[in-house]
Design a protein that fits this description.
The structure holds 2 protein chains of 2 kinds. Chain A is of the alpha+beta class. Chain A folds into 3 domains: 54 residues, Uridine Diphospho-n-acetylenolpyruvylglucosamine Reductase, domain 2, CATH 3.30.43; 120 residues, 2-Layer Sandwich (Uridine Diphospho-n-acetylenolpyruvylglucosamine Reductase, domain 3), CATH 3.30.465; 104 residues, CO dehydrogenase flavoprotein, C-terminal domain (Enolase-like, domain 1), CATH 3.30.390.50. Chain A has 13 helices and 14 strands. Among the domains of chain B are: 146 residues, DNA polymerase, domain 1, CATH 1.10.150.120; 143 residues, 2-Layer Sandwich (Aldehyde Oxidoreductase, domain 4), CATH 3.30.365. In chain B, helix 2 packs across helix 5 and helix 14 runs parallel beside helix 15. Classes of the chains: A alpha+beta, B alpha+beta. Chains A and B meet through strand 1, helix 5, helix 6 and helix 12 of A and strand 4 and helix 13 of B.
């Protein structure tokens, strides 16, 4: 079980950062707590005592979200359920409702935050593929010389390995800034043992934009759960850019996906799953972008 | 430690109470406000027995620190039935029979209420999706979904309120009539108290020290530092057992707590009763044990080898029991066979996973009667064993069966009631133990893993001439129900088929794995899995329809079972015919795979999908695309 000496709920970022600075080495930042409490149990971390828990979920800046000049600013404490019930977010980030509906369950999504998912840096963290696809930047804040100091870095640099990120002990993730993908067709694929409350064995996000001729004007793919760090699948994107979304072409490009599997377990299964995921995610994204994939030529000839 | 001062509105009443900073909302509701309709099933957000509304939003209270409840409005299941009048959802659960053990039901009722508040016209797929965070182990969910659909239709006026009333019994009789369960109202309202919900004045909290080793000698065990801690009222080990230590269903080979050695990971060694749970847990860390690791046995075949390490002195061959059955002459039977098929089959251990973990409350009453409340599935047997273990006359031991929040055979063994009795006697105070989910999985009995070697002889026409079946069951570290399980496995080994020449040998073997015990079907699931799989293989090799092969060999009225019981009636052929019709079976040879035409037909369930809420309803407007 988790125990603490004090549980503090600051209402401003300044106050939270000052507390974190004062309690250096003794405090842990929490928001939704949906990962922390299951972690402090038998079979995982066991009984854990954290002297001070600092709850940042009441800080306005961390709850705010809006779209501005083609970019979305998401407060780090945005609960996942908002991607299922906040229409501006659902429009700006069309992959997020599909990601969110597979994430935990309706109740946990009310508490679990996008920022918390990223800070925990699980190789299977469902928040990573969509944020990689949206070219997210992570904004961090710390208390320095009596005031708030901030920095920002790309999400690909933020996560460094399983459970490891670039966040310093005195920093709090405040905001995730990412591309607004309105008009993109997007999809999220996930496989696990059941449909609710399941950790991804593999998860994949696709977002595509088609030009007037129906060619890929933009194609973005990112995969998680198959290696130490979720990744963009740049070689597949490059192979498809400017091309027509023909099923045979998608299948050929998708074969590159197996090379992303570098996990330590169920490797053969994941290698088999990933190319199919890539094709499925792209077909769905293309359909949602308003076109349908051209069938294979063999099938055309047959017809 | 600074205490929190939590002010909130709980079920319409303003509450202001101190709380510990590490408490969860669940602890605050259950322990401080005594609102025990909110249950704890896992403590990790997986099961939904603890679902409550916070500011109108359903959340899992085991994942919410109580500090987050500050200034907020909490509604628990107790708020749904106003002035004793159950809500429509609760009445629908009552009508639909959507409660069995009842332990998940308060959470289910809350999740159903949330679903219909958010999406009053939710269809069955959306109901399933929105309630995906709540687990039921008993019902298979269908009656729960029926109840939510019934509630939806009544709330929306598509069905009259009278749809919630009990169906009138036809002609005064109850056969064929849907009768409401009399215990359902207490379950759907959360009023029913399971052992873990019970409290008594002066009650102490119990925690158990468990073995990290599969097989080790206990060289020394020192509890003095734990006993000296403030708030610790009693510590017990096997040294505190006054009578003949040992329990079990067929052989009393298991001590209340490990005596001299441990035989599996998770075996209880010592138990602490303290003023609060945290003190009891911290006291466990102060108990000093020196172990001498012994070679472990994790495979029953290795345990049966001559010279293998011995787990129990009374069983130098590591056998709990061997059950042989001999019918006819198998040599002759195989000689008559046109086809002989051999194969091996394995099954794995399975956890019962009832939503209510093991829990119990014990005290010594005014007459010196040691009283234990627990969800025991076998209280009379437990009472007799406990009297012997405690060296008390039977009238000084009382076992009370608390509501069982799911059992499935997993609560037949007296694995913790003895510790509670000893602690109540030693401390002179009421004591309560509630297992964590992890503790329940690690330390309680599982379904017996099995390894079956099957040899069957058949004529070209499919008549079985002989079968030789050998099943090795892994009994784990203690006997528990193993003898009965392997006996049932032997009796039913060849299934409901008339096998004229039969040799069956089932073995229950000690290993250092988690003890195996009773579990629905009691040993026959393992043998039936082997028999039915084997018949499918034989049908394929014979080029026969698998139903036909079974009909040729089925026992009929007048048949005699393999243990010489004459059958004056036998429904086997009728059951097969009914199954053939209900499954839309397409006659043909086994092993046809996807070439069959009877797959995915009417009555089969479509594959699992998510995103039902995007198709129609309140969430669909914002989704610009379909599918």
């Amino acid at each position: 079980m988790l125990t603490c000496d004090d549980y503090l709920v600051p209402e401003t970022l300044d106050a939270a950062l000052r507390l974190l600075d004062e309690q250096a080495g003794k405090a842990r930042i929490v928001a939704g707590c949906t990962d922390l409490l299951p972690w402090a149990r038998e079979g995982r971390a066991g009984d854990v005592h954290v002297p001070v828990l600092i709850d940042i979920s009441k800080i306005g800046e961390l709850q705010a979200r809006h779209v501005e000049a083609g970019r979305v600013r998401l407060g780090a404490a945005t609960p996942f359920q908002r991607f299922l019930d906040d229409p501006p977010m659902m429009t700006a980030l069309p992959m997020m409702p599909r990601c969110a509906v597979w994430f935990a369950d309706d109740q946990i999504r009310e508490a679990a935050t996008l920022g918390g998912n990223l800070v925990n840096a699980s190789p299977a963290g469902d928040g990573f593929p969509p944020m990689l696809v949206a070219n997210a930047e992570i904004e961090l804040a710390r208390w320095e010389e009596g005031k708030v100091a901030r920095r920002s870095l790309p999400i690909a640099d933020f996560m460094q390995g399983p459970g490891r990120t670039a966040i310093a002990p005195n920093e709090i993730m405040t905001t995730i800034v990412c591309d607004a993908l309105e008009g993109y067709g997007a999809s999220f694929e996930k496989v696990g043992h059941r449909r609710s409350l399941v950790i991804s064995v593999a998860c994949l996000c696709a977002a595509v934009k088609l030009d007037a001729q129906g060619r890929f004007a933009d194609v973005r793919l990112a995969i998680g759960g198959v290696g130490p760090v979720p990744q963009r699948m740049r070689d597949i994107e490059d192979a498809l850019h400017g091309q027509l979304p023909e099923e045979a072409r998608l299948e050929t490009a998708a074969q590159l996906g197996a090379a992303y599997v570098r996990s330590r377990s169920r490797e053969a299964y994941r290698r088999a799953v990933v190319p199919g995921f890539v094709v499925q995610a792209l077909l769905t994204a293309v359909k949602r972008a308003g076109a349908s994939a051209r069938p294979r030529e063999t099938e055309l000839a047959h017809a | 430690m600074p205490e929190l001062d939590i002010a909130a509105t709980v079920n319409g009443r303003k509450i202001r109470r101190k709380a510990q900073p590490w408490q969860r909302l669940l602890d605050y509701l259950r322990d401080d406000l005594n609102l025990t309709g909110t249950k704890e099933g896992c403590g990790a957000g997986e099961c939904g027995t603890c679902s409550v509304f916070v500011d109108g939003t359903l959340v899992k209270s085991c994942l919410m620190p109580v500090a987050k409840a500050q200034g907020r409005t909490i509604e628990t299941v107790e708020s749904l039935a106003r002035s004793g009048e159950m809500s429509v959802v609760q009445r629908a659960f009552h009508k639909a029979g959507a409660s069995q053990c009842g332990y998940c039901i308060p959470g289910m009722v809350m999740a159903a209420t949330a679903t219909l508040r958010l999406d009053p016209h939710a269809d069955r797929e959306k109901i399933k999706e929105r309630m995906g965070g709540n687990i039921c182990r008993c019902t298979g969910y269908q009656k729960i979904f029926d109840a939510v659909e019934l509630a939806r239709d009544v709330i929306n006026g598509h069905l009259p309120q009278t749809a919630l009333l009990e169906t009138e019994a036809k002609d005064g009789g109850y056969i064929g009539t849907n009768v409401r369960r009399i215990d359902a109202p207490s379950k759907v309202t959360g009023a029913l108290r399971y052992a873990g919900d019970m409290v008594m004045p002066g009650m102490l909290h119990v925690q158990v020290l468990r073995s990290p080793h599969a097989h080790a000698r206990i060289v020394s065990l020192d509890t003095r530092e734990a006993e000296a801690m403030d708030g610790v009222e009693a510590v017990v080990t096997s040294a505190d057992v006054p009578g003949v230590d040992g329990f079990g269903v067929f052989v009393c080979d298991q001590p209340i707590m490990a005596r001299d050695k441990v035989r599996y990971v998770g075996e209880a060694i010592a138990a602490v009763a303290a003023e609060d749970l945290l003190t009891a847990r911290r006291a466990l860390e102060k108990i000093k044990i020196v172990y001498e690791p012994l070679p472990g046995l994790f495979d029953p075949f290795a345990a049966m080898q001559p010279g293998a390490p011995v787990l129990h002195d009374y069983a130098p061959d590591n056998l709990v029991k061997h059950i042989p059955i001999r019918v006819g002459d198998i040599e002759q039977g195989f000689a008559e066979a046109a086809l002989v098929v051999e194969e091996t089959y394995e099954t794995q251990p399975v956890e019962h996973a009832y939503l209510e973990t093991e829990a119990g409350l014990a005290f010594v009453d005014h007459d010196g009667v040691v009283t234990v409340h627990s969800p025991s599935q076998n209280i009379t047997h437990h009472r007799h064993m406990l009297a012997r273990i405690l060296a008390l006359p039977i009238n000084k031991v009382r076992m009370v069966m608390s509501p069982v929040g799911g059992g499935f055979g997993g609560k037949e063994d007296m694995i913790y009631q003895g510790m509670l009795a000893l602690l109540a006697m030693k401390s002179g105070r009421p004591v309560r133990l509630v297992f964590t989910r992890e503790e329940s999985i690690a330390s309680t009995a599982k379904r017996h893993p099995s390894h079956t070697t099957y040899r069957m002889g058949l004529t070209r026409e499919g008549r079985i001439t002989a079968a030789k079946i050998r099943i090795v069951y892994d009994g784990g570290a203690y006997g528990l129900s193993t003898e009965g399980v392997i006996r049932k496995g032997a009796i039913l080994a060849a299934g409901p088929y008339d096998v004229p020449n039969l040799q069956v040998d089932t073995y229950g073997v000690y290993t250092n794995n988690t003890p195996s015990g009773a579990f629905r079907s009691f040993g026959s699931l393992q043998s039936q899995f082997a028999t039915e799989s084997h018949l499918d293989l034989c049908a394929e090799l014979l080029g026969m329809d698998p139903f036909e092969l079974r009909l040729v060999n089925a026992m009929r009225p007048g048949s005699t079972t393999h243990t010489k019981q004459p059958l004056s009636s036998c429904a086997m052929t009728r059951v097969l015919e009914a199954a053939r019709i209900a499954s839309n079976w397409e006659p043909g040879v086994a092993g046809r795979g996807a070439t069959r035409g009877d797959l995915d037909g009417p009555g089969t369930r479509p594959p699992m999908t998510l995103g039902a809420r995007f198709a129609t309803g309140p969430d669909s407007a914002a989704m610009s695309e379909a599918g």
